[in-house]
Amino acid sequence: MSELILKAESLSACYGRVEALSDVSLQVARGEIVTVVGANGAGKSTLLQSILGAVSPKAGKLTFAGQDITRWPIYRRIEEGLVLVPEGRRILVSMTIEENLLLGAHMRRDKIAVRREIGGIYDRFPNLAQRRNHNASCLSGGEQQMLALGRALLAKPQLLMMDEPSLGLSPLFVQRLFELIQAYNREGLSILLIEQNTANALRIAHRATVLELGRVALEGDAASVAGSTGLQEAYLGGTSREVMEVDHKRKSVGRRS
Predict the structure, then answer these.
(1) Are residues 63 and 181 in the same domain?
(2) Are both 186 and 218 inside the same structural domain?
């Protein structure tokens, strides 16, 4: 395995008396896509929030780019390149597309580089470029997800964390999204992907972890996890092929991009 960009060791987290994570360990090497899958309530989003620092683990250790960040505040983690694309996108619809992008770079001082990178984002997302001075409320759900991704990239991530990025998107935008994730990874970006679209997540990931009720139920290279009889036991039931096919249909049918 290459040099680790992230190492989570024995993380546990609670909401009141409810234990959301229990002794969860995870590693992401530089240049990898690692996906975390599991049913609703498995602890996937809590894991990301704990890594970002929005949730304080009751136990465990976090190492990022060789530094112990367990007690670091959120802003310092972001400054070091630990960046999250949150579930639901959370763009500011009353602000313009360009203003939303600039929010991603608000900690940066290299303004010339920022303008150049915004130009690169517009090249990759021409729909955003055409409406850069319009409020983000004019965008479809899929376009809003592309804006959220562009905003996160302007924070210069060493590790990009994505929480359910395909949620609510049409099949066309889901396909485009996963192509983009692969493209940015080929350019060297390390990615930690939380997804319920199990089939696509396991298809593009290098390694995978399956969470069940806040615990690691299964982990390994993505192809092995996808073909494992343990996947359906830890996740939704049925054969692993059925799990992925049903999950894919449930996420894509009837959703507006």
Answers:
(1) yes
(2) yes
